[in-house]
Amino acid sequence: MITRRRLLVALGAAALSKSHGAHAQQRRKLPRIGVIVPGDPKHTRRDAFRSGLRERGWTEGRDILVEYRSIESTADQVRAVVDELVALDMDAIVAASNPVIFALKRATQKIPIVMALVGDPVGAGFVASLARPGGNITGFSILAEGLSAKRLEILREIDPRISRVAVLRNLAIPTHGVLLKDTETAARALRMTLVPLDYRNAGDLQEVLKSLTRERADGLVVLPDATTSAKRTLIASVASQSGLPAMYPWAGFVDAGGLAAYGPNPNDLWRRSATYVDRILKGARPADLPIEQPTRFELVVNLKVAKTLRLTIPQTVLLRADRVIE
Question: How far is 197 from 195, CA to CA, in rounded Å?
Fold first, then answer.
């Protein structure tokens, strides 16, 4: 009887140990995703991505593991975060901004990379074409035709007196050359003069902002860039103190004290990036997943800032606005 009891206990222990081993093995096999988010103090981008995962049926900690990293886009920090996530051999990495995608492209040709938002991925050399990326990178491009012209048109509509517009341009981002040409074409049609203000990093940007008054600009356009996004509160403050009506690439600048923004909703693109992750984890190759471009754009206006600048926003603009900050 004792021997039989001992045998049953031993068998039970072996079965339990095997069950625990299988459970541990299952946890180790959970797909791991790296997410590099530039300048996201309120975690809105992170929350948007999480929402997208839930929509696709993924629950963090249960059937997927996500490693989040927040960066301010300094070269050393970008390199360190990219190297760390690549060394962890992620099943996919989601990121935004040209400098981060450049670093990822150099670091790995194996791990699938999902661009939450970049400018011109073809012109930057990230992918072969929008229809067939051809490598390990896919995702979203925010380079939409006519967007630069629309921003200038709205800025002129807000203040018809504007004729000389400063444009913040990052020389380290090839896409900004394309965007500046588009903006120049729109400016000629509107009989406006552009004044490019060039920078390469956050330190340069702070110095460039000091020259706004010297350039005698009466308006400001900010091109989309992780560096300006991280410094959006500073830029909005300088523009307001300089008395410049400014147009920004997305709503976060307006929430930080900017006058107006027109462009795609970054949080929506981060949420939709989870769809690419879902398809990749289910066997799709990034090379075969077409690059998408935004089709929805939002106009956001800050009436508090308009009052500070002694501007009356026309009803034609307010009626088109998706959100008005009062």
Answer: 6
Helices (H), 123-209: 147-158, 174-189, 202-209
Q: pLDDT tens, 57-108?
A: 999 999 999 999 988 767 888 999 999 999 999 999 999 988 899 999 999 9
Cα torsion 178, 181, 185, 190: sign:
positive
The number of angstroms, rounded, from the C-alpha of 305 to the middle of its chain's C-alpha atoms is 25
Q: Are strands 298-302 and 323-325 parallel, antiparallel or unpaired?
A: parallel
* H or E segment and range at residue 95: strand 92-96
Helix (H, G, I), strand (E, B) or coil at 114: strand
178-208 burial, b at 16+ Cβ within 10 Å, e below that, comes to: bbbebbbebbeeeebebebbebeebebbeeb
Helix (H) or strand (E) holding 92: strand 92-96
Sheet strands side by side (includes 323-325): 193-199, 164-170, 219-222, 246-248, 260-263, 298-302, 323-325
